């Protein structure tokens, strides 16, 4: 079955005095995702519409936008969920980022914060877990994850989509805040390193003016995260570690 | 002609603080804490201004005491108590979460503490209007 959906898209091009919205009627399959509808608007109505996308399966995080006001990865958001059958489906760029063109935002600042920990955040633990050796002809099975490693893998689910930055009310007030993904990255990097001096440096980085104490515990980052990373949980864990660190320093230990 | 990336104005961005449309319980708690926090700061200054009336002697203080006993003014006392309880109890939740306590149960904690707040507000309102 084909759906005909009115899709209202945020538009802005360099040189425009102000942004505006365009509405297109697009035809997509009932099982389509929102990204298919955006692509249909581009393909059938306006080739100047700009948006990011790559993998189409929530692996790259490039396509993140707001669908009806809520941060989503449109590549995995079904139109049946985003459009109840009446009214328009609203597509807007992520909040708290400079908007370059239409749905494309400038993510440079976000990645600068992400790498400030000095460790590049990768998904290596997820991708390099070997498959178990199976006799020829049988289907290989993933190895059992050792106890405790699941907790460490948690942040490595991050696809760096920027959704947590868009959902965070503190980021709306200051772009100097390290942000949920950056702080979760610091927490993850601390867990990963065996270097105590580096672990302390990372903790002090999180303790800075724009670190964990700027978070106002709205938990929107964790709620919005499409990968269940739980940045707010990481921020609270960093706070707990910082309190312990400061108490130890206070008593000269 | 603008060629820079578009950024909504600071005011427009800051209004996000109060926008709870399609947001979850944590955001509602965040907005409640901001509203009650601002309210309590305003009250503090009002309180100091009112106390300064004491310097004017009985002539300026006694009419205020009469006003303070009016039902409308007593209703404001209930609003003040609501602000204290909501802000204080929500602050306990945020504080505990900051120590890593109850982070995963933060929504349940918020609901539970707000139930306590509602009971407290009702009890205080009863005490002010019925027993007062």
Q: What does this protein look like?
A:
The complex is a heterodimer of chains A (253) and B (132). With 253 residues, chain A is α+β, with helices and mostly antiparallel strands. Chain A has two domains: 2-105, Ubiquitin-like (UB roll); 108-250, Alpha-helical ferredoxin (Fumarate Reductase Iron-sulfur Protein, Chain B, domain 2). Chain A has helices spanning 34-44, 79-82, 108-114, 124-128, 149-153, 163-167, 169-173, 179-192, 196-206, 220-224, 231-250; strands at residues 2-11, 20-29, 65-67, 70-72, 89-92, 99-101, 104-105. In chain A, the strands form two sheets. Chain A has a five-stranded mixed β-sheet with strand order 2-1-5-3-4. The longest helix of chain A is centred in the last third of the chain and has 20 residues, at 231-250. Chain A is elongated and about 70 Å long. Chain B has helices spanning 10-14, 25-51, 58-68, 71-98, 106-131. Chain B has five helices and no strands. Chain B has one domain (21-131): 3 helical TM bundles of succinate and fumarate reductases (Up-down Bundle), CATH 1.20.1300. With 132 residues, chain B is an all-alpha fold. In chain B, 73% of the residues lie in helices and 0% in strands. The longest helix of chain B is centred in the middle third of the chain and has 28 residues, at 71-98. The chains are: A alpha+beta (253), B mainly alpha (132).
Identify low-pLDDT runs of chain B: none
Q: Mind describing the biggest β-sheet of chain A?
A: 5 strands, mixed
Briefly note the CATH topology name of the largest domain in chain A.
Fumarate Reductase Iron-sulfur Protein, Chain B, domain 2
Count of separate structural domains of chain A: 2
Helical content of chain A stands at 25-40%
Unreliable residue stretches of chain A: 121-135
> What radius of gyration of chain B results from the CA coordinates?
20 Å
Silhouette of chain A: elongated
Oligomer: heterodimer
Intertermini distance of chain A = 68 Å
Rg of chain A computed from alpha carbons, rounded to a whole number of angstroms: 21 Å
Q: What is the N-to-C succession of helices and strands of chain A?
A: EEHEEHEEEHHHHHHHHH
């Amino acid at each position: 079955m084909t759906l005909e959906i009115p899709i209202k898209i945020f538009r802005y091009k360099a040189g425009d005095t102000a942004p505006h919205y365009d509405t297109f009627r697009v035809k997509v399959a009932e099982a389509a995702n929102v990204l298919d509808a955006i692509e249909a608007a581009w393909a059938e109505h306006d080739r100047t519409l700009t948006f990011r996308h790559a993998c189409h399966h929530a692996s790259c995080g490039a396509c993140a936008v707001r669908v009806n006001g809520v941060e989503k990865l449109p590549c995995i958001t079904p139109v049946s969920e985003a459009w109840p059958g009446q009214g328009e489906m609203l597509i807007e760029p992520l909040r708290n980022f400079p908007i370059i063109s239409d749905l494309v935002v400038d993510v440079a600042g976000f990645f600068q914060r992400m790498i400030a920990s000095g460790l590049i955040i990768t998904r290596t633990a997820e991708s390099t877990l070997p498959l178990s050796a199976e006799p020829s002809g049988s289907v290989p099975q993933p190895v059992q994850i050792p106890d405790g490693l699941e907790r460490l893998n948690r942040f490595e689910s991050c696809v760096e989509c920027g959704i947590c930055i868009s959902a965070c009310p503190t980021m709306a007030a200051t772009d100097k805040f390290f942000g949920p993904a950056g702080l979760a990255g610091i927490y993850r990097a601390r867990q990963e390193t065996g270097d105590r001096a580096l672990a302390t440096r990372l903790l002090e980085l999180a303790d800075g003016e724009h670190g964990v104490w700027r978070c106002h515990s709205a938990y929107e980052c964790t709620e919005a995260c499409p990968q269940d990373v739980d940045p707010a949980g990481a921020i609270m864990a960093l706070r707990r570690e910082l309190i312990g660190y400061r108490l130890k320093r206070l008593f000269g230990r | 002609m603008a060629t820079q990336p578009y950024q909504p104005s600071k005011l427009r961005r800051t209004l996000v603080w109060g926008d709870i449309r399609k947001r979850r319980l944590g955001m509602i708690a965040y907005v409640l804490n901001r509203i009650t926090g601002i309210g309590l700061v305003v009250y503090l200054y009002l309180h100091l201004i009112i106390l300064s009336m004491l310097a004017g002697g009985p002539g300026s203080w006694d009419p205020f005491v009469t006003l303070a006993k009016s039902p409308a003014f007593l209703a404001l006392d209930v609003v003040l108590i609501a602000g204290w309880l909501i802000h204080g109890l929500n602050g306990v939740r945020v504080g505990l979460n900051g120590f890593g306590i109850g982070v995963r149960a933060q929504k349940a904690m918020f609901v539970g503490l707000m139930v306590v707040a509602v009971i407290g507000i009702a009890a205080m309102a009863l005490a002010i209007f019925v027993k007062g």
